[in-house]
Amino acid sequence: MKATPAIVIGTLFAILVPFQLFSAEVTAPEVKIGSKAFTESVILGDIVSLIVRDAGAIPVQRRELGGTRVLWNALLNGEIDIYPEYTGTVSEEILAQKGIHGEAAIRQALAERGIMMTRSLGFSNNYAIGMKKETCKKMQVHKISDLRGHPELRLGFSNEFMDRADGWPSLRNHYDLPQKQVYGMDHDLSYRGLEAGSIDATDIYSTDAEIQYYDLCLLEDDLRHFSAYAAVLLYRKDLSERAPKVVSELSKLEGQITEPAIIEMNARAKFNKIPEGRIAADFVTAKLSVATRTRHDTAVDRFWRHTSEHLYLVALSLVAAILVSIPLGIVAAKRPRIGQVILGFTGLIQTIPSLALLVFMIPLLGIGGPPAIAALFLYSLLPIVRNTCVGIRDIPSDIRESAEALGLPARAILRLVELPMASRTILAGIKTSAVINVGTATLGALVGAGGYGQPILTGIRLDDIGLIMQGAIPSAALALLVQGFFEFAERFFVPKGLQL
Amino acid sequence: MIQLKNVSKGYGNVRALQGIDLIIPEGMTTVVIGPSGCGKSTLLRLIIGLAYPDTGSVYFKDTQVLPDVVLSLRRRMGYVIQEGGLLPHLTARDNAALMARYIGWSEDRVQKRVDELCDLTQFPHDGLGRFPAQLSGGQRQRVSLMRALMLDPDVLLMDEPLGSLDPMIRSGLQKDLKEVFRRLKATVVLVTHDMGEAIFLGDMIVLLKDGEILQKGTLNDLVQSPVDPFVTRFINAQRCAFDAEKQNT
User: Fold this and answer.
1) B48 and B159 housed in the same domain
2) pLDDT value, residue A23
3) What is the pLDDT of residues A152-196, one digit of tens each?
C-alpha cells in the first residue's frame, strides 16, 4: 500500500483545516442569533441580526435550527444568545408542568434560568385549527368543539404540535375529540395537504400568510384551550454585560411589529420568494431608520458555501470513521467474541433514525457542525467495520498458513498479507459509507451544520422546488463523484495481483 | 534432525495421530505415505508448529517446537503445500523474497539469491515479475519451492507438492525435485499418497494408517518383510506406477 493513505489523509486535513479557522479577528462582541425552521422566525432572526449589527456587534446567525427544544437548549448552553419565541410556547411547552401563567411569572421563571425576555414585539401568533372554507361550510364546522361530530375527519399536524404539551394530546383531551386519523407532518407541507384534500384540518399559526392564500377558515377556540402567544425575544442575561448596546437597541423593537405587518412579511417571503434578509432590511429601514447595508449572496456564493460546508461534514466524519473502523474490523476478524459485540453495536447505531441520532447529539455537542459530524461518523462505521472483518476472514486458510509457515509474526502478516488481500473489500465498505454519508449529511442543516441540506430545508419551507433542487442536485452529484473517486482509488490501493 | 516423541493429536473427536515416534535423519528424503485422512499432513503441521501435539513432543535439532520459539524455528524450515500457497497479491519474485526482505536482507543479496534459485528450480527468469494467477501450476510450485529454499533452510517440508499437477508436468517436476534434493544434500520430509512418487523420491518410507505408523524403512524392507498385510496391499495397489518407474530408471 506504500505511503498513499498517509498522503490522502494529509491532503484532506490540509483542505479542511482552513474552514475551521475563518472566524478570527474579534474586536466587537459576537452575538449569536438563532431562529426556528419556519419563515416568521427566520425573518425575526434576520431583523434582530440587523439591529445587532447596528448596535456595533457582530451578528452570527444560526438560521432554521429546528424546533423549540433545539433552540431553547442552545440558548441555555450559550450556543446562541438570542432567538425569537412566543410567550405561550414558554409557558405551555418550555416550562410546562410548572404551572406558570402570566407575563410576570414567566419573566421570573426565565430569570431563574439566566434568560431574559423582551416585551411583546407587537403581535401574537396563536395556534389555531384551520380548514378549507368550503369544508367548513359543508360540514357546518365553525368552532373546535364542532369537530366532535365529525370523527371521520383526517387531521394533519406539524410534528412539533403532535408532541407539545399544549399540542394535540391536550387539545384532544380538552375538547374530547374523537378523530383517529391523525398524522404528523412538516408544517409547510400540511397546507399542501389541505389543498390536495389528503387532510381536512391542520394546526396553523394565526400569522401564517397561507391562511389568506389558501382561503382557510379558523375554528374558534370556544373552550379556550390555546394560550396567548405574544412574540418576544429571549436572550441570555450575560448579554447585558457583553453587549449592553445590543440589549438596549433590541428594546426599540418592542411593540413595533403589528400583526398585518408580520403577515405581509410572511407573504412576501412565501409567495414572492423575496429573501428573508431583504424583507428584514426593508422593515428596519422603514420602521426603525436603521441603516442597512445588506449584502446579498449570489447563487454562486451560496453554492460554494454549501459545498464547502457539505464537504467539511462528509470529509471529517468519513476520515474519522475510516481511522476507527478499520482497526475495529481487524479486531472483529481476529476475536470473534468481541467481533460480535462490535458488529452488534455498530449495527444498532444504523437502526437509529438519522434525525433522532442528530437530536441525541445536541445535548452533548451543541449545535452546528460537531453534532452532525458525530452522527455521520457513527453512521459510517458499520459498512467499513463489516467489510474489513469479512475481507480478512475470507482470506483462504492455506494462504494465511503459508505466510505463517514462513515465520512472519502476526503483525507482519496483517500488514503484508491480510490488509492488502482485503483491500478491495475494505474499499468497497468505505465507498458505501461515503455515499450514504453524502446523502445523510443533508440532514445536518436541521442542527445548523449547513451544507446542501440548507437549500433543501429552505425550499421545503418556502415551497420552492427550484431551491430544493439547488441542494438535491449537487448532493446527488457529489455522491456520484465520491463513488467515482473511490473506484479510481481502487487502482492504487488494491494490489495489481488482485486486479487480474 | 527432527524427532517426534510419542506424539498424539486430535481435532475434536477425530484422532489424527496416535503415539507417533519418529526420527527424521539428516541429508535424506523421508516420505510419509498413507491413504487419505491417515494424518500425514498433521505430521508436517506439528513439525512446523502450525499445530501443537495434545501429548508428546516435537524436537527440531534438540529444540522443542513451542509457541515462544516457533517463529525462529520456522525460518529454518521451508514449507511447500499442494496448491503452492503463493500470495496472490505479490509477484513471483516478491513471494520468494518476502521473508528475506522482512528480516532485512539487502536488495542485492535478495536478487542474487532469487537468481540462484531460479537456476536451481529451472524457473524462467522473465517470469519473476508475474503474479501467481499468470503462472502455470508447475511454475507456481517452482516459485513455492524457491520461497521455501530462500533462507537456505535446514529442512524442507513438502505437503503433496505435486498433488494438483497433471501427470506430464508432474513427472518432469519429480525429476527436477530429485535433482534439487541431490544437489543440496537436503533433509526433506515429503508427504504424498502416491507410491510411485514415494519410491522415486524417498530414501526412507513411513507408512501411516489411521494415525499410527504401520511400518518405516526402505522400499525393500516394506516389500520383503511387511509387518501387516495392509503394507503389501497398499504397495500392490500402486504397482503399475512402481513398474513404470522401474523401467524409467
Assistant:
1) yes
2) 41
3) 888 888 887 887 777 888 888 888 888 888 888 887 788 888 888
What the block records as the C-alpha cell of A484 is 467515482
Are the C-beta atoms of residues A333 and A393 closer than 8 Å to each other? yes
Helix (H) or strand (E) holding A110: helix A103-112
Q: What percent of chain B has pLDDT over 90?
A: 45
For β-strands B212-217 and B204-209, DSSP reports them as: antiparallel
For the stretch A369-411, pLDDT in tens is 888 899 999 999 999 999 999 999 999 988 888 899 999 999 9
Residue of chain A nearest B151, judged by CA positions: A406
Cβ-Cβ contacts under 8 Å, A406 against chain B: 74-75, 79, 98-99, 147
CB contact under 8 A, A497 and B50: no
Residue found by looking up cell 514449507 in the block: B79
Mutant choice from A1, A406, A416, A425 vs B, greatest count of B C-beta within 10 A: A406
pLDDT for the residue numbered A33: 92
Closest Cα in chain B to A399: B85
| Count: domains in chain B | 2
The answer to whether the CB of A154 falls within 8 A of the CB of A199 is: yes
Q: To the nearest whole angstrom, how far is the Cα of A498 from the nearest Cα of chain B? A: 5
Q: Out of B72, B85, B131, whose CB is closest to A401?
A: B85
Q: Looking at the structure, do residues B235 and B119 belong to the same domain, yes or no?
A: no
Count up the domains in chain A and report the number.
Answer: 3
Query: In B81-170, where do the E strands start and end?
Result: 155-159
What residues make up the domain containing A136?
127-219
Rounded to a whole number of angstroms, the distance from the CA of A7 to the nearest CA of chain B is 22
CATH of the domain at A215: 3.40.190.120
In a domain, A335, yes or no: yes
Question: Does the distance separating the beta carbons of B90 and A404 come in below 8 Å?
Answer: no
Given a contact cutoff of 8 angstroms between Cβ atoms, the answer to whether A390 and A425 are in contact is yes
Q: Are residues B183 and B120 part of one domain?
A: no
- The interface predicted TM-score of the complex, written ipTM, equals 0.85
**Coil, strand or helix at A499:** coil
Residue numbers of the domain that contains B144:
86-153
Low-confidence ranges of chain B (pLDDT < 50): none
Same-domain status, A187 and A61: no
- Supply the pLDDT for residue A19: 44
Is-contact A127 A86, C-beta < 8 A? Answer: no
- d(C-alpha B147, C-alpha B87), whole Å: 11
- Of B119, B135, B153, at which residue does a domain stop? B153
Over range A298-307, report the average pLDDT: 84
CB contact under 8 Å between A407 and B74, yes or no, is yes
Looking at the partner chain, which of A401, A421, A500 has a beta carbon nearest the beta carbon of B133?
A500
Mean pLDDT rounded to a whole number for chain A: 85
What does the radius of gyration of chain A's CA atoms come to, in whole angstroms? Answer: 27
- Helical pair A259-271 and A276-288, crossing angle rounded to 10 deg: 150
Across the interface, whether the CB atoms of A399 and B87 are under 8 A apart is answered yes
User: B217: part of which helix (H) or strand (E)?
Assistant: strand B212-217
